[in-house]
Specification:
- By secondary structure, the protein is an alpha+beta fold.
- Helix content is 31%, strand content 32%.
- The strands form 2 sheets. Strands 1, 2, 3, 4, 5, 6, 7 and 8 form an 8-stranded antiparallel sheet that branches. Strands 9-10 form a two-stranded antiparallel ribbon.
- A hairpin with a 2-residue loop joins strand 5 and strand 6.
Length: 197
């Protein structure tokens, strides 16, 4: 009985060591919370100023620090933030990798909307390669991170509109100009001088 138990244990240990060991995520990628089947919306029916503020607020709420901004050019660049961190442990030791990513965001004002373009840059650090960072050749991971941020922005813009601003502008435009009179008894404005009638 003991012989069989010992043999089974050795077999399990060898299988464990030869099959790639056990892997697990220390930190998950933000994209792991992305809704299945999500399709990014890139045009928003909001004013440029409001869209700019929404994106900055989303980055702040998600703890993505901003490195540079240029509102006139419509560009926002973030710092790198740590993402997925994975570890593997086996008979031959432990190894793992860490991902980090940053965003380059551009805004372009159209006639009736604002177009938002997001590009994610992803780097990987291998624990067994001296700790250096290198580009991660995985367009899928980059796109997932981009869609994750798009989804956060869409949720933040849900229910927002420029209707009130448009109504206020229309109301202001419809108010007739008041006629004013100077001290020299001259009429100012677009109206005709009563003395000339």
């Amino acid at each position: 009985m003991f012989f069989y138990s010992k043999t089974l244990l050795i077999s399990i240990v060898l299988l464990f060591g030869l099959s790639g060991c056990v892997s697990f995520d220390v930190n998950k990628s933000p994209a792991s919370s992305l809704t299945n089947g999500f399709v990014a919306k890139k045009d928003y029916s909001l004013s440029y100023d409001k869209m700019w503020d929404v994106i900055k607020n989303v980055l702040d709420n998600e703890r993505v620090p901003i490195a540079n901004t240029d509102k006139a050019e419509g560009r926002i660049t973030t710092e790198y933030v740590k993402g997925q961190q994975s570890m593997s442990i086996g008979l031959l030791g432990a190894w793992g990798h860490t991902l980090q990513h940053k965003y380059s965001i551009s805004l372009e004002k159209n006639s009736s909307s604002v177009h938002v373009n997001i590009i994610a840059t992803v780097e990987v650090q291998e624990a067994t390669q001296g700790g250096g960072w290198r580009p991660l050749g995985s367009p899928e991971k980059a796109k997932a991170l981009e869609d994750w941020l798009y989804e956060k922005i869409e949720k933040a813009t849900s229910g927002l509109s420029d209707t009130n601003e448009q109504e206020n502008n229309q109301s202001a435009a419809s108010v007739p100009k008041k006629k004013t009179k100077s001290r020299k008894n001259k009429w100012i404005g677009n109206s005709t001088n009563p003395s000339e009638q």
